[in-house]
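ugh ok fine here u go
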Amino acid sequence: CDGSILLNHLGSERTALESKTLRGFQLIDDIKAELERKCPKTVSCADILTAAARDATLLVGGPFWEVPFGRKDGKISLSTEANLVPHGHENITALIAFFQEKGLDILDLVTLSGSHTIGRSTCSSVMDRIYNFNGTQKPDPSINVYFLKLLRKRCKSELDLVHLDVLTPRTFDTIYYTNLMRKVGLLSTDQSLFSDARTAPFVEAFATQPFLFTSQFSVSMVKLGNVQVLTRPSEGEIRVNCNRVNTV
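structure:
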């Protein structure tokens, strides 16, 4: 929420192993360059990222939401902080606590996990599930047996990529939730949403009532977009170039 992922220097979040599959940096640079031509030093890179997330969601069939603007760009980006985001191995209790620290609740957790209706993950996030679950030398018993065979075929190395939603990976829909009910959730953090009594009712509701999901997704994305933002004049800056902090 402060555009720190865009800073491109030695030791920045962008250089971290966890950021290896991130793409679209050039597109953000192109948007920023156009904005600087039209209205210099007015729109932050953090605001561009937030608007781009909304517009990208719309382009793949998702809902619209009003994006509050006025964020400032941070001046610090550390590769170690990229490691703080969930990796797909955490249990539900840890995930709930992680979200609550950011001011997000259980409903937000299940809703925002639904963004996995599109996109891909590296196989490194699922290798333990398909080969050595909890050190048992066996696969996770909660994986659908046909899905397990598919994953073992796709994941020859940890850097291979696999779709988060195996059925409709390029469409924003509620198939992600029906996948969980069929035991074909990719990440263990995904699948555990349906196996835990605190989160399962929300999974079932979203799977059967798509409008409920899309309307709540808009609400939860606004909440997420307001986490740890920099807005005061003394906080951050509006970068002229998203890749580096301003020089005086």
